[in-house]
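In response to the reviewer comment on reproducibility (Comment 2.3), we provide here a single inverse folding case reported in full, input and output, so that an independent group could reproduce the run without further information from us. The structure tokens appear first.
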């Protein structure tokens, strides 16, 4: 096969290149956010994307100006910081080094960049604002105590309403509401909801860390009387004592208490004066219409108990009482950096069917996570029950078994007072007349909805499906000539969005927990689809906060009492740190969390004197045996390698040497115990055990051949589970066997992704079979296939030693059954594109490399190393 390079490539230093259109800095970000409010880092980090025409464009220097006003910036005066001209190619995570920034300080900034020819230009201005929280605010609640008897937790316990009236005098310049709650809160000013967050704040381990948000409420205030209202929900801070799986009471493992709020409204006036309203015992509290609320079981809402106008000025609160001061200690307050949960898509159900008299089944068209909004006109006191599920029985009735919380499905299983079956169920009691209802402090995973209590079915237009998720930016796109692959890619996307609610969960209905193993298997798939920079920073902190006293990381973070999975789940912490560095250049989280990662691995080492892991969960849902020792020991080896690289990056030479030796000791023990050098067999010789060895670089020359033999014996079908699937597809493609990997993914029958599609899946299943009683049908762990599509069909990869995607590998596999692929990824340095198409014997490649980066482009004839720009290649097949 010959290659024709249509556009000639030259090095960055080539003489005689005419300057291209001026380079500009765009998309200015502070702490990975655009124009953020509530930045609590004392040394904020600044970043930008570079744009320029032409090839081989690099930034040779930058100058950052930070000013206290737009007027200063217009005069190019950095009265807070003028970095001066800094000769460097660095463009991400530039640390602010100016004057100390006071709480609430608004900062205006701009950046000047120079290209390789000495030409400079200025960006458009951006802003950030420092956090301001703690001006005398105290945590307050409804003043009640939680029940002492377990069964009493299931009785009505109305969600508290809290209100504070205050007067405003003067010309308002700006106003900021800084607020948090435990578990959830919803705030309003003068009767209108503040912001568009839902289920705020993000779930953490609250005795370690509580997140708060800052809102611009300038336009919500008015001269004269105003009212700040807050409604509180239980969330994860006041869960039911329901025994998940019949044995796990979450209240035994979570920091708990009555729902509470901490709030500060700070107002600045044009004359320079200030006014502050804070949460304290001058507020008033009463009961609201949400009589019960649970993140698992749903909500009971009695519209007859609404108090119209309660969050507006002038409301008669004479019968309301003084709130209590929440006594339980909490951890440090920290600005919420991960994208908030929002309603990100709405649509109407696609059909309705009356399966029994006055029992209506609505099909939302796809499985998702979120809520329903219903519009009704019913007699006062009408009770409407809304039950959610992922499947239907053959007779068209709702099969909600796969979404039952904690698999609770028998009397007495969950403890005193708990329901016999832990359905996802919302109940609405009408006040009479036209009204609408949307649950507030819960969320569900479902496709189908059963509604009881209606005299007739609601029109489809009167029901709205509300998809909710942490509102991460979509940055990765893939499409190819095999439409079944496009459908697989889409159900991966749907599944991922269903499972990011402040934590990356395993499923949005049955468990909702942040399992580390699911993260290890899919984190790069998520990163290649969405901007996960701040979301995964929070995840790393969650695991660090949840570590046991001896340093061992837990299976889930925040910790829920589940801790048996071992190294493969715990390694999510260092894996994410390494990926945050590689993809986003986040050095700060490495420095912050290194000691926690080190303490963890040293404890694992102490517990493993012979370097062979004995216990833990390995290849969950594998179709063949998955013994822990042979499967998890390679992950222990990989963890030691990651820690060695982390220590080296931080200049901790002794630590690095220790972990290098540990990795070598693990390798020697593993190879001696599990690898047959003559045959290449690894452990039990399954696809997964072979793939674990190859992915961890613990294989021999025959390991791959043994894997291929097993695949042929299974007719090109996989037998792998949660991690073996990811490792095998990557190992095959990296070893030159991408055609085999393609065959695996393209199998139309069991087991595989097309089998799911054939059986009606709109999201990924937890189990390769269509199991309809227990296993989730919205589970991300097999979504690693979307990473394989981006990495190997599109060919977009970060180099192994990339820092913030500064080095790129383009390695598309032009497979015989594909005619074309389109793929792109918006990295922290700009958009990467890798498209190819085959026409006859010719294959055409179009590649786009961001400014200030370089790429290795792997073609059939060899490797081209290029700088930034747009490139076109042609290859001709000799076949």
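Designed residues, in position order:
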């Amino acid at each position: 096969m010959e290659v024709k390079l249509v556009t000639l490539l030259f090095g960055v230093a080539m003489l005689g290149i005419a300057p291209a259109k001026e380079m500009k800095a765009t998309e200015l970000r502070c702490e990975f956010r655009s124009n953020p409010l509530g930045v609590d880092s004392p040394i904020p980090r600044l970043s930008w994307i570079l744009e320029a025409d032409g090839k081989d464009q690099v930034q040779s220097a930058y100058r950052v100006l930070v000013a206290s006003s737009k007027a200063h910036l217009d005069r190019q005066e950095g009265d807070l910081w003028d970095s001066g001209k800094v000769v460097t190619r660095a463009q991400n995570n530039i640390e602010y080094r100016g004057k100390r920034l006071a709480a609430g300080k608004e900062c205006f900034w701009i950046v000047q960049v120079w290209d390789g020819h000495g030409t400079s230009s200025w960006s458009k201005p951006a802003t950030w604002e420092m956090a301001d929280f703690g001006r005398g605010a105290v945590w307050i609640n409804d003043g009640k105590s939680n029940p002492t008897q377990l069964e009493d937790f299931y009785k009505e316990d109305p969600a508290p309403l809290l209100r504070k009236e205050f007067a405003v005098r003067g010309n308002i310049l700006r106003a900021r509401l800084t607020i948090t709650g435990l578990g959830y809160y919803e705030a309003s000013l003068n009767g209108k909801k503040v912001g568009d967050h839902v289920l705020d704040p993000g779930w953490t381990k609250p005795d370690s860390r509580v997140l708060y948000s800052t809102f611009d409420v300038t336009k919500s205030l008015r001269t004269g009387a105003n009212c700040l209202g807050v409604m509180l929900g239980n969330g994860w801070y006041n869960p039911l004592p329901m025994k998940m799986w019949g044995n796990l009471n979450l209240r035994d493992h979570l920091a708990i208490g009555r729902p509470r709020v901490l709030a500060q409204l700070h107002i600045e006036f044009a004359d320079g004066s200030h006014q502050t309203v804070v949460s304290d015992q001058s507020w008033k509290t009463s009961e609201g219409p949400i009589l019960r609320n649970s993140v698992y079981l749903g909500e009971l809402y009695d519209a007859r108990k609404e108090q119209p106008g309660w969050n507006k000025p002038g409301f008669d609160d004479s019968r309301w009482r003084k709130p209590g001061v929440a006594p339980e200690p909490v951890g440090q307050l920290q600005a919420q950096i991960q994208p908030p949960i929002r309603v990100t898509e709405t649509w109407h159900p696609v059909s309705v069917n009356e399966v029994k008299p006055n029992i209506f089944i609505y099909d939302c068209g796809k499985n998702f996570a979120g809520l329903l909004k219903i519009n009704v006109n019913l007699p006062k006191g009408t009770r409407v029950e809304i039950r959610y599920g992922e499947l239907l029985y053959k007779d068209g009735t709702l099969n909600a078994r796969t979404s039952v919380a904690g698999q609770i499905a028998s009397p007495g299983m969950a403890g005193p007072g708990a329901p016999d079956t832990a359905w996802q169920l919302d109940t609405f009691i009408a006040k009479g007349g036209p009204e609408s209802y949307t649950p507030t402090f819960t969320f569900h995973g479902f496709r189908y909805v059963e509604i009881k209590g209606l005299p007739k079915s609601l029109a489809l237009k009167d029901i709205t499906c509300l998809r909710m998720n942490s509102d991460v930016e979509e940055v990765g796109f893939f499409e190819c000539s095999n439409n079944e692959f496009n459908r697989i890619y889409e159900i991966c996307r749907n599944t991922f969005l269903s499972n990011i609610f402040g934590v990356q969960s395993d499923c949005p209905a049955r468990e909702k927990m942040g399992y580390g193993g699911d993260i290890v298997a899919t984190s790069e798939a998520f990163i290649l689809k969405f901007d996960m920079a701040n979301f995964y920073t929070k995840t790393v902190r969650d695991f660090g906060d949840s570590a046991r006293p001896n340093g061992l990381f837990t299976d889930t973070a925040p910790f829920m009492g589940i801790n048996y999975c071992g190294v493969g789940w715990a390694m999510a912490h260092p894996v994410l740190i390494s990926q945050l560095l590689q993809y986003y250049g986040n050095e700060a989280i490495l420095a912050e969390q290194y000691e926690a990662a080190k303490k963890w691995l040293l404890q694992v080492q102490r517990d493993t004197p012979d370097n062979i892991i004995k216990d833990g969960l390995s290849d969950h849902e594998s179709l063949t045996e998955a013994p822990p020792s042979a499967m998890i020991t390679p992950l222990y080896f990989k963890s030691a390698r990651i820690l060695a690289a982390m220590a080296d990056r931080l200049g901790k030479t002794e630590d690095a040497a220790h972990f290098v030796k540990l990795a070598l000791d693990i390798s020697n023990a593993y190879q001696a115990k599990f690898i047959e050098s003559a045959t290449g067999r690894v452990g039990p010789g399954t696809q997964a055990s072979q793939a674990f060895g190859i992915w961890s670089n613990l294989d021999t020359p025959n390991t791959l051949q043994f894997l291929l033999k097993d695949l042929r014996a299974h007719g090109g079908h996989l037998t792998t589970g949660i991690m073996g699937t990811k490792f095998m597809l990557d190992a095959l493609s990296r070893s030159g066997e991408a055609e085999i990997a393609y065959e695996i993914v393209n199998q139309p029958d069991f087991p595989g992704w097309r089998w799911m599609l054939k059986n009606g899946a709109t999201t990924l299943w937890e189990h390769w079979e269509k199991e309809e009683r227990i296993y989730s049908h919205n589970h991300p762990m097999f979504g690693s296939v979307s990473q394989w599509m981006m990495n190997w069909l599109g060919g977009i990869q970060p180099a192994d030693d990339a820092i913030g995607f500064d080095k790129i590998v383009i390695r598309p596999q032009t497979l015989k059954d594909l005619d074309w692929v389109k793929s792109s990824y918006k990295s922290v340095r700009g958009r990467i594109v890798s498209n190819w198409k085959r026409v006859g014997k010719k294959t055409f490649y179009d590649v786009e490399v961001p400014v200030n980066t370089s790429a290795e482009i792997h073609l059939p004839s060899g490797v081209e190393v290029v700088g930034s720009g747009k490139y076109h290649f042609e290859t001709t097949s000799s076949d």
